[in-house]
């Protein structure tokens, strides 16, 4: 039983993540083996001498993917990580990690048999000190080199470098590693010099893996930050973006940064985030030269919440009612398991459907709407995690996903096994489990629970947002929101 779980986990250990530093040597890449020893246990690949795991040949997903991607063989991310490594660690029981040196999420102790839980809370309900600490922790992650993982900045064909012996991989900071993995998962398929790159791929959006991909990488970031801080109780926070209106409530200098008084698209110099610089901006270069984003930081974060004049539909945040509506959808995903799916919980929380589930190409709701509302770095898919609002927006999206899993007691059988867009088959669904029982974290959140009649909001929800809203903000119907 655990064997199949671990096989699945193994896939995820290297899925759209990059590689442990020890593995990206010329010899490592030539051998196709990435089986490091746990820290402090030299020459013990995958901790096999203590029963933690073993080095095995891996079988990546062979099931058919959907028709959106017709270029099989052209993209390094197909059947990941086989293009780079075909032997990796398979961890036993409660062990995990690329070297089986860690415990699975939610477990701790030398034998990984003690439960541990962290609580993800609403950023608006933190004390002044907690807010300051969270901002500082993020800033530290932006500046601290990832202790284990590196990014590769060339496609496999060029990975050994011009001389065949200088592997094109480099260090990156913990926060930028998160940004980079997101960029890598959404980047186009390079088709060769002078050819148009192919944009019909996205390994983390527009498919059932949307919720599980983001969950996996948020957990990785949370763990990296726990390690960085030496604090296993560190937890990410969430932003309840479903508050309606056109106010970015977390855009204040004690949190994610107020608007700059000198530049409506910039962040106030009183916020440390005004000093952050983005990575992965040079998309034209990646697409025409076949390069890959590297760790170089360039321009400041841009953000202009609620002021996209060309697109009134994205000038308001999602409404509490939208959450009530999307949680009522019974089906996790529907064919073609894509951004065109109708009556799909996944496509609705992602935000390509109206909150009630009906697909409409002009609609942007929930997660997508919250991104687009930011009108800047956080609203452009390849760049969005550069704005730290991304983290809080996605923990809340994950909270809605977890609430859906709990209310619908859904198991992986409802996750499509095949014919989802490339990268989105069930093989990649080991995060499709309720978080408190299986992954060691819970959300402290009060869900809107009654039909909201636009005049008064259910009282316990109002508690979370005391400064809620005025009657004049009311809308006639939810669909008015999403049409130009
Ligand atoms: C694994 O990868 C190595 C290095 O690319 C290659 O030489 C070897 O043939 C591969 N083995 C299998 C079973 O695919
Ligand atoms: C894994 O951890 C759980 C929870 O503490 C424990 O009940 C179980 O025995 C552990 N499994 C192994 C194989 O150690
Ligand atoms: C990358 O980071 C590691 C760990 O901090 C360090 O030992 C190594 O020297 C760094 N490599 C480069 C090229 O900076
Ligand atoms: C922000 O809004 C402006 C004005 O409508 C628009 O031209 C621009 O494309 C938007 N930027 C982003 C990144 O969404």
UniProtKB/TrEMBL annotation:
Q: Which residues form the signal peptide?
A: 1-17
Keyword Zinc appears in the UniProt entry = yes
Topology versus the membrane, per the UniProt entry? Answer: Single-pass type I membrane protein
Pathway(s) served: Pigment biosynthesis; melanin biosynthesis
Q: Which cofactor does it need?
A: Cu(2+); Zn(2+)
Per the record, the similarity remark reads: Belongs to the tyrosinase family.
Which protein is depicted?
Answer: 5,6-dihydroxyindole-2-carboxylic acid oxidase
